[in-house]
Write a structure and sequence with these properties.
The protein is mostly helical and 190 residues long. It is 70% helix and 0% strand. The chain has helices at residues 6-25, 28-35, 42-45, 49-62, 76-93, 101-108, 114-140, 150-171, 177-188. The model has no long low-confidence stretch (mean pLDDT 95).
Length: 190
């Protein structure tokens, strides 16, 4: 029988608490309670809530399936569409109650924690790098106009997606997804 990893359980509990309640709404006690751990054990694994938040952001980033955007055996526009459909479907499954943890933390805590701000910056940078790879591949295949810098298009896609999430969560509706998909795949990436 595998031994219980309290550290992993704390990370998973923190990820869920932060994603549901935000950084300020999730206290150390909430996290340890959700992990079924004594509060004192938290500090055996993490020096601070801030340090755990950085690990939770890494955990979030690993769940975005970003490496699929670089998969050379899949058509680049298919990669991009699948990526955003995956993210959209996650919002639908969560009934618009959880947004992008990078974006949520950027709005809530990045002005108050340089450590978290840098972790968010790293997450967004890697996401943009993966989007850039897919856009550049689509340009090389002649599917997308080569008139725009692929990294600029990728940054725009990510910014547009984050805005779409804000709208969908505010409205508790899928309505914001249609303009995103229509504009990105019907106009911008043609």
């Amino acid at each position: 029988m595998a031994q219980r990893s309290l550290r992993k359980e704390l990370v998973e509990a923190a990820f869920q608490q932060f994603h549901t309640h935000g950084y300020n709404g999730a206290g150390v006690k909430d996290i340890t309670d959700a992990a079924g751990a004594p509060k004192g054990s938290f500090y055996n694994h993490f020096p601070s809530k801030e340090a755990l938040a950085v690990v939770a952001l890494e955990r979030y980033g690993s769940g975005l399936r970003l490496d699929e955007l670089k998969e050379p055996t899949v058509d680049p526009l298919v990669r991009l569409r699948r990526h955003f459909e995956f993210l959209r479907d996650a919002q639908l499954d969560q009934q618009f109650l959880q947004g992008c943890l990078f974006g949520d933390f950027a709005n809530e805590i990045s002005d108050h924690s340089e450590t978290i701000r840098k972790a968010i910056q790293v997450g967004f940078a890697y996401w943009t790098e993966c989007l850039t790879a897919a856009v550049a591949d689509a340009q090389a295949a002649g599917q997308v106009s080569a008139g725009q810098d692929p990294s600029t298009l990728a940054a725009f896609l990510l910014n547009a997606w984050e805005g779409t999430l804000i709208s969908s969560r505010t409205e508790r509706s899928a309505r914001a997804f249609k303009p995103f998909f229509d504009t990105v795949f019907g106009v911008l990436l043609r």
